[in-house]
Amino acid sequence: MPNNQFKKGELYSFMTGKASTAIARRLQKNMKHGGIEITVEQWSVLYHLWKNDGLSQQELCNATFRDKPSITRLVDNLEKLKLVKRVASKNDRRINQVFLTEQGRKLEEETMMVANNTLNEALIGVPADRVDICKEVLQIVYDNLK
Amino acid sequence: MPNNQFKKGELYSFMTGKASTAIARRLQKNMKHGGIEITVEQWSVLYHLWKNDGLSQQELCNATFRDKPSITRLVDNLEKLKLVKRVASKNDRRINQVFLTEQGRKLEEETMMVANNTLNEALIGVPADRVDICKEVLQIVYDNLK
DNA sequence: GGCATATAGTTGTTTATGCAACTACTCAAA
DNA sequence: TTTGAGTAGTTGCATAAACAACTATATGCC
Biological process GO terms, please (chains A, B) (predicted)? Predict the structure, then answer.
């Protein structure tokens, strides 16, 4: 028994993620404006390495919710930009660990500041308790479907 | 003065739209499983034509929050699939109106049913009033950034 | 040890996106 | 009536995504 109805197109934006598209575009624009020459997708990989350097590509797949080919090519491009380096694991030769370079580490502070500012632009006029509810709903949706 | 802080990565999912990615993937999977051979992006264009046939490409840009090249190519592909047809406007020869074909119209009922079911899968365990709050927050975010 | 199965990662193909540069058409003002 | 600004749409290029097919390595069972 459905607990919600998709009526009158009011949930179109919800389903198509117009808000998150808008956030990604603004983040991209703000990074470019700040002289940070990476894509938002590359940012999402670096983000997890800043928290936890040396993740394997598979762990990056799980963390970023991207498939293996996507991570292969994102890491390819980040390597070309000299921001990360693949290191074959000694224990398990199937695994590449991905490590930040000095250059990659240096990006963290500035880039996270831009991300933080972008989020604040996005949330102007939204009470914090409503943001929390929204986050919870999106987390449940993600858990339902992932 | 920032009204929210981007702390401890808790808003990573919010910013990167993991929930809407999950919805889009599930919708794609459900359509394929139901024998509907279109992409979710093509669905988003057809959706607006079902509500309002004959929109111009520019109007489709506004409705779907995509840029002009994206709509050009989505309409290209929908035309190849014989689901829509471009018709040059008589009043203003710059404008293409996009009309559904009989085949395009026939997809509506089944496809909207699949979309509705997908949404219900996504929202299992979420009280309706929380969905409403989430929608409102996302609408404000979109309006802040669009 | 050897084989089946699973896991990590890569490659190929099609579709989609963002941005910039371009063509074609419209409209209004000199 | 011409010209110049604005609008609608297309094309080119780089990046990214989904899916399937592939290689290489690891592991567990006989």
Answer: response to stress
Low-confidence ranges of chain B (pLDDT < 50): 1-9
| CATH class (in words) of the domain with range A13-145 | mainly alpha
Instruction: Give yes or no for CB of B8 within 7 Å of strand D.
Output: no
Using a CB–CB cutoff of 8 Å, tell me whether A60 touches chain B: no
Task: With beta carbons less than 8 A apart as the criterion, state whether B87 and B97 touch.
Answer: yes
Q: Do B4 and A117 make contact, defined as CB atoms within 8 angstroms?
A: no
Q: How confident is the model at residue A108 (pLDDT cuts 50, 70, 90)?
A: very high
* Positions of chain D reached by protein Cβ under 7 A: 6-13, 15-21, 24-27
Q: Which residues have CB under 8 Å from A28's CB, separation 6+?
A: A39, A40
Please state the domain extents for chain B: 15-145
Instruction: List the CATH code of the domain at B15-145.
Output: 1.10.10.10
Find, among B51, B61, B109, B115, the residue nearest to A8 by Cα.
B51
- Cβ contact B138–A18 (<8 Å): yes
Provide the Cα torsion A9, A14, A19, A21; round to 10°: -100
